[in-house]
Amino acid sequence: MKALAPKSIAPPFAKYSHGVETELRRVVLTSGQLGVDRKGVIPEGAEAQADICFGNIDAILAEAGLDRHAVLRINAFVTDRSHMAGYMAARDRYLEGLEVLPASTLVIVSGFTRPEFVVEIEVMAAER
């Protein structure tokens, strides 16, 4: 994978790449993951929920024989600007140690299927 960072545009605002280039052999797309653990517990706060989302994503990638190093793109959704910091803290931990940061989008939405959910995350990953 190669990060794309044109000098002609402003640098990323946070821990992500403007673009990512790779040759695809196999692609894995996850559904949006919500912050609910295996026992059905939904913790309060975006950071705790995002940690669960990223844990679920790791499990999905592992099922495909991949890990977070294969993530090309993260799409995340939060229900309010106040949840951005918690989500970003969890995302930055998730990305720690990666040589190439994935492309990333964060969108504020009006809500999810249940009001206690405040974050949802999906990824696109590819075998190199």
Structure report:
This protein has 128 residues and is an alpha+beta fold. It has one domain (22-127): 2-Layer Sandwich (60s Ribosomal Protein L30, Chain: A), CATH 3.30.1330. The chain has helices spanning 46-63, 84-95, and strands at residues 2-4, 19-21, 26-29, 33-34, 71-78, 103-108, 119-127. The strands form two sheets. Strands 3, 4, 5, 6 and 7 form a five-stranded mixed beta sheet that branches. α1 (46-63) packs parallel to α2 (84-95). It starts with a strand and ends with a strand. The mean pLDDT is 95.
Helices, strands, pairings?
Blueprint: E1 2-4, E2 19-21, E3 26-29, E4 33-34, H1 46-63, E5 71-78, H2 84-95, E6 103-108, E7 119-127
Helix pairs in contact: 1-2
Question: How many strand units?
Answer: 7
- What's the number of domains? 1
- What is the highest CATH level, the class? Alpha Beta
What is the CATH fold-level name? 60s Ribosomal Protein L30, Chain: A
Mean pLDDT over the full residue set: 95
Helix content: 10-25%
Quick structural gist:
The protein is an alpha+beta fold. Helix content is 23%, strand content 27%.
Task: Label this structure with key terms.
single chain, 128 residues, alpha+beta, 60s Ribosomal Protein L30, Chain: A, 5-stranded mixed β-sheet, two-stranded antiparallel sheet, 27% strand, YjgF/YER057c/UK114, hydrolase
